[in-house]
Amino acid sequence: MTHKLMMTALLAGSFFMAQAQQKAKPEDTEVWDPAPKVVTPGQVQIAAPSDAVILFDGKNLDKWVMTEDRSKPAQWTVADGVMTVNKKTGNIETKDAFNDYQLHIEWRIPANITGEGQARGNSGIFLASIGKGDDGYELQVLDAYNNKTYVNGMAGSIYKQFVPLANPAKKPGEWQSYDVFWKAPTFNEDGSVKTPARVTVLFNGVLVENNVELLGPTQYIGKPSYKKAHGASPIKLQAHGDKSEPISFRNIWIRPL
Ligand code: MG
Questions:
Q1: Omega of the bond prior to 34 within 30 degrees of 0, cis?
Q2: Domain CATH number, residue 82
Q3: What's the 95 CA to ligand 1 centre distance in angstroms?
Q4: Three-class SS of residue 82?
Q5: pLDDT tens-digit map of 133-191
Q6: Angle at Cα 177 formed by Cα 51 and Cα 150, nearest 5°?
Q7: Which sign does the torsion angle of CA 138, 164, 194, 104 carry?
Q8: Domain, as residue range, for 61
Q9: How far is the CA of 158 from the centre of ligand 1 (A)?
Q10: Dist. CA 22 → ligand 1 center (Å)
Q11: Distance 178 CA to ligand 1 centre (A)
């Protein structure tokens, strides 16, 4: 190959690489196989221990605010001891901020759920909310009972980072739980990451994430990385924009560590 040809080839190569980067798609970071094995779970409900901070006890949303405007009280529905997502109002998050913690949260996909894949009971728990919208580290909430989707986006996944080790999902209409053990990331003075976030998750009492080291906050398109330093952060619940019936939460408590 002549020098000129080689230069042309190199230029063409970098041009196509730049094109590829510009056209990065959500599908690029989906993983579909293999599917985690299905496990029938046991008991899912755990009453709060004496030293827990109660984030939701079925009565009100006093501990929660709107993510888009933290001066506004959370505008989701509370009835019959459960809170239900109001998709029109948006994400909610805790008033308080947390570093390392143990969190228990129960959720229910409605029995009459419709839709498929990511549009079937999608919500999420952002283990640290680091900004508006979906900024943060998402533990996915989704119907995973005979609902095919990419496995790094199914219930129990750290969205688009870690596939759950098993699928212990219950049927729509039944209550399910997450128990989360969160080690917040720490940062150097220059803003670079010092120690990445780590998380262990039990889904309906079954280990699905085993002390995994997060690559950064959740990213819908492209590869995640730590881009900005942050301190203690709220816990955020997602009002996902899909058309399926809204899901509910109950019995949310946390033990800051
Ligand atoms: Mg979600």
A1: yes
A2: 2.60.120.560
A3: 21
A4: strand
A5: 999 999 999 999 999 999 999 999 999 999 999 999 999 999 999 999 999 999 999 99
A6: 135
A7: positive
A8: 31-256
A9: 10
A10: 25
A11: 14
